[in-house]
Amino acid sequence: MIQLGDTQISLSDPVTLAALAAVAALVLLFVLLVLAVRRAGAAARLAEPMLQQVAALGHRVQALGDGQQQLAGGLTHVSEAQTQAQAQMLQLMEARLAEVTTRMGESLQGSSTRTARSLGELQQRLETIDRAQAKIEKLSGDVLSLQDILSNKQTRGAFGEIQLQDIVSKALPKDSYDWQATLSNGKRADCLIRLPNPPGPIVIDSKFPLEAYEALRNAGTPWELNEAAKSMRTAVKAHIKAISQKYILEGETADGALMFLPSEAVYAELHANFPDLVREGFAARVWIVSPTTCMATLNTMRAVLKDARMREQAGAIRRELGLLHGDVERLETRVGNLDKHFSQAAKDIGEIRISAEKAGKRARRLDSFDFDELADETTPPAPPGTRAPVQILRQDG
């Protein structure tokens, strides 16, 4: 039993026990609350830095969220820009592809045109080559024929004579030369050119020492070359001697003759390697000429013939000049007479012009009824003391 003042509390009373138990429970709860508060304060003090970190983390999370939104907006903008760029690039590529296709088409068309043109030109060139080949084959046949001609001494002589005829006929007038002319000694010259004296008619004889020249060209050893040179000297000396003896006749022909070589190669060989033969020809008054030098010599002869013919015609020219002088004098006399006639005619025309002007002036006056001036000009003045005639009124227009 517990005595609290006037009140006694019995410990065996259930109510008391329940009250005590409740009070104990309250005290215990209070103690626990106090302990909990203390622990909560300590925990709060311990959790404050963590809360700050959590707050900072929250701010960072918020910033990350904002950044993520901005990043999402940027990605959306980039995606849209990329899509637009891809569309523009696709359009540009399509335009370029169309342009390239067009250019390729034009290029292919131009290439096909150029190829066709080139094929046409190639065809023409092939045709030209075929024609040239045909001409070469024909020329080869002609060369073989020429070799056949030159291999025979008689045909070779005819070949030289034909070439000489062609050159002479082109350089001189037809009446200034004769073919196969017979001289007083009975010898026939290939060509006799009738030059005036001096120098007189001159003979051109065609010679062609082909065998000696071919032997000289085909010589392979010094001995063969020496033998070919001897053969060349022998042949040319024989031709020079024959021309000098046959065609240089005193009082009938010129004091010299021409030996025509129808080959420039043989002529060049003689002057290059056989100058002694050329000098021997000069000594024998036989001048060796080739087709080129023969043409030059014939041109000189043509000038001589022209000068001679002009001298022959000098008398006729002087006579014609005298007649022309007489005609000129008569022409001068007749021109003087005609000039006199023209002077008289000019004078008559001047007088006729004056009369015509006067007649025209009077006709114009009559046309305008200008009778006052007409009376003044035609009526003589009245004597003094007499009455002037009555004037007619003038009507103009």
Largest sheet, strands/sense/barrel? 5 strands, mixed
User: Any idea what the radius of gyration is?
Assistant: 71 Å
What's the total count of β strands? 7
* CATH architecture heading of the domain at 157-312: 3-Layer(aba) Sandwich
Q: Which structural category fits the helices and strands?
A: alpha/beta
Order of helices and strands: EEHHEEEHHEHHEHHH
Q: Please report which band the strand proportion falls in: under 5%, 5-15%, 15-25%, 25-35%, 35-45% or over 45%.
A: 5-15%
Low-confidence stretches: 142-146, 385-397
Tally the helices: 9
Shape type? elongated
Tell me the helix content. over 70%
How far is it from the N-terminal to the C-terminal residue, by CA? 186 Å
Give the overall average pLDDT.
76
Q: What is the spatial order of strands in the main beta sheet?
A: 3-4-5-6-7
Find the CATH topology of the domain at 157-312.
Trna Endonuclease, Chain: A, domain 1
**CATH class descriptor of the domain at 157-312:** Alpha Beta
Q: Short summary of the structure?
A:
It is built from nine helices and seven strands; from the N terminus they run ββααβββααβααβααα. The chain is of the alpha/beta class and 397 residues long.
